[in-house]
Amino acid sequence: MSYAALTARRLRADYQINAYSGRGMVRNYNGGSPEENYRTFYDRALLNVPGDVWQNPGTWRPRLVVVHLGTNDFSTPLNPGEPWTDESLAAAYRSAYSGFLQKLRTRYGPGTTLLAVGAGPFAGHVEQVVRERTGAGDRRVRYWRLDDTNLDHTGCHWHYSAQDHRLLADRLTSFLGDLPIRW
């Protein structure tokens, strides 16, 4: 029911979704569990087993990887005791985001399009990272500003509703139609 799955089905593409509610690129929702973040779990096959790394069978070569991370980093104000200022959080986020895109580029190679999704208060940071990577020669990284017009966020804990996912799938499918990706 997610916009990722709906979009993939519309394009007749295989898909894999890696998601972890409440986890951010560097800061989790409301500053919780500061000793870990989304990147802590990205490589794991079993999330609760440290060191358990998913092994790519070698045949998994995505043509597109969509990265939508940042909502939890910026959706709540910094709490007393957190190690950041607004500026240092933004800088840490951009650095981690750029490093994560580099990890994906290394893993999947130059033929995979990396689509960096920006929305709300973190959109400008994502766009900046994409500009920097493009300027450094990565021609297969793209930026997509997620249009949240008419989304109701009535899913559990302010997540997208089923209707929101359908709207986002429409928007993403349309955006992808203009990219030079062969399915």
Note down, in words, how this protein is organized:
- It contains six helices and three strands, in the order ααβααβαβα.
- The longest helix has 23 residues.
- The model has no long low-confidence stretch (mean pLDDT 94).
- Helix 1 packs across helix 6 and helix 4 crosses helix 5.
- With 183 residues, the protein is mainly α.
- It has a three-stranded parallel β-sheet, with helices on one face.
- It has a single domain, classed as 3-Layer(aba) Sandwich (Rossmann fold), CATH 3.40.50.1110.
- Strand 2, helix 5 and strand 3 form a beta-alpha-beta unit.
Kindly, what is the distance between the CA atoms of the first and last residues, rounded to a whole number of angstroms? 21 Å
Instruction: State the fourth-level CATH superfamily.
Output: SGNH hydrolase
Named CATH topology: Rossmann fold
- Globally, the shape reads globular
Helical content band? 25-40%
**Average pLDDT level:** 94
Number of separate structural domains: 1
Strand order of the largest sheet: 1-2-3
